[in-house]
Amino acid sequence: MTHTPLPGGTFNLADDLVVTRFGYGAMQLAGPNVMGPPADHDEAVRVPREAVELGITNIDTSDVYGPYVTNQLIKEALHPYSDSLHIITKVGAQRDAEGGWPIARSPQQVRDGIYSNLKNLGLDVLDVVNMRAGGPMGPEPGSIEEAFSTLVELQEQDLIRHLGVSNVTPDQVAEAKAIAPIVCVQNSYNVANRYDDALIDSLADEGIAYVPFFPLGGFSPLQSDVLSAVATRLETTPMSVALAWLLRRSPNILLISGTSSVAHLRENAAGAGLALSEADYAQLDAITAS
After folding, report:
1. Which residue in 281, 222, 208 sits closest to 246, CA to CA?
2. CATH value of 18-216+250-258 in 3.20.20.100, 3.40.50.960, 3.40.50.1240, 3.20.20.140
3. Which residue ranges make up each domain of the chain?
4. Mean pLDDT of the chain
5. If pLDDT is split at 50, 70 and 90, which confidence band does 3 have?
6. pLDDT band at 283 (very low <50, low <70, confident <90, very high)
7. Using CB atoms within 10 A as the burial measure, which of 120, 153, 178, 242 is most buried?
8. Residue 46 contacts residue 262 (beta carbons within 8 Å)
9. Region at 258 (left for phi over 0; alpha for psi -120 to 50; beta for the rest)
10. Which residues are known to be catalytic?
11. b vs e for 188-198, b when ≥16 Cβ sit within 10 Å of the residue's Cβ?
């Protein structure tokens, strides 16, 4: 099958792991607040299938989405998986009855999380697993050695091919790298909230991917106005502008555009390929100080 090239091309996470820079984030396949089943099961199954049809080879998920729902939908939609498709998951949190995200980083909780992901995805080995640190409001200082070392043990048991970290501080990135090689870092980042600028640049120098979540949000009214003004001038949406800016920001940035709609997924893929002029890029680049 011939696909229209996705925006951004591809990125080598590792010698045996090449992914499209434009990927799909599956969190929204679950029900409201990422709990329970989706309102439209058939549409939820169609979305990951459409991602593959578009040529996406990078799907981000976790067994805590639902919980279990998202991974089970991915398995229903795509199993047995193509050799070119790479599913990236994470452990380090769980869900409570109120929909909260309490931490789950004891060695046993990490092991349970890996076995649960394997079961619900229908896999014998996971391509990439991110250790999620921090809390609901973002990264928090403190050692991640115990939890990350547990992932390394599971990697040595051939249950995981590659490792990453998520919701982490630069010090925690350094701590993880001192324990074992990582292929990606997944943190909150967008055109206006750029606390990780220096980290992105240092990771790019090392060939390590940076995967931003929350690509459009947390903006001040002035920042939103600038983003909307650029979108209006280019006759597109603020989301398209934000995604296009991220792809241009650094070659190691991978997008995990999240949606529960086939139409929205197609719009995101097209929008991320938006060509920003130097003037557009400079105007957007300046809103971080707004």
Report:
1. 281
2. 3.20.20.100
3. 18-216+250-258
4. 95
5. low
6. very high
7. 242
8. yes
9. beta
10. 65
11. bbbbbbbebee
